[in-house]
Design brief:
By secondary structure, the protein is α+β, with helices and mostly antiparallel strands. The chain has helices at about 1-15, 25-30; strands spanning about 35-40, 50-55, 60-65, 70-80, 85-95, 100-105, 110-120, 125-130, 130, 140-145.
Length: about 150
């Protein structure tokens, strides 16, 4: 009985551990994150439908955002593609003076949505368990778009 319990614990730990260490750019590429993502690729960028671009420049991964009346570009300092299929990013956003942990999960059809968005410095969650903390509304699903 004890041997079976230990075996189950060992399997659970092995499954929940992140995959081997990779550069942020390599991990993002392997997960399929690089490119341009939108809620609706045919609509103009707006505060409700921000264009998200994950791109590698000079070997570093950047997260660019365009919300129509403004844009920013932030370095992604850490990416871990997890064995459970999620990807965990640490992004420093100079435009809002925050470092955030964002965890994305893929949908069955290859899109993704945010499971967690947390301010690393304060621990405050914007999104937890795939829902906005203040409203309970599910996070948006992003689709890969053609072009930048």
């Amino acid at each position: 009985m004890l041997r079976s319990a230990l075996l189950l614990v060992a399997i659970a730990l092995a499954i929940s551990r992140p995959s081997f260490a990779q550069s942020p750019a390599t991990a993002a590429a392997g997960w399929g994150l690089l490119g341009t993502w939108r809620i609706d690729c045919n609509a103009a960028p707006s505060r409700n439908d921000v264009t998200l671009i994950f791109v590698v420049r000079t070997g570093r991964l950047f997260h660019d955002r365009n919300w129509g009346d403004g844009h920013d570009s932030s370095v992604v300092s850490s990416v871990v593609a997890r064995t459970d299929g999620t990807i965990d990013l640490t992004i420093t956003f100079p435009s809002i003076s925050q470092t955030r942990q964002n965890v994305y999960g893929k949908t069955r059809d290859g899109h993704w949505h945010t499971l967690v968005s947390r301010n690393v410095d304060t621990g405050e969650y914007l999104i937890k368990d795939g829902k906005f903390v203040n409203s309970g509304i599910a996070s948006s699903v992003y689709t890969r778009c053609a072009g930048p």
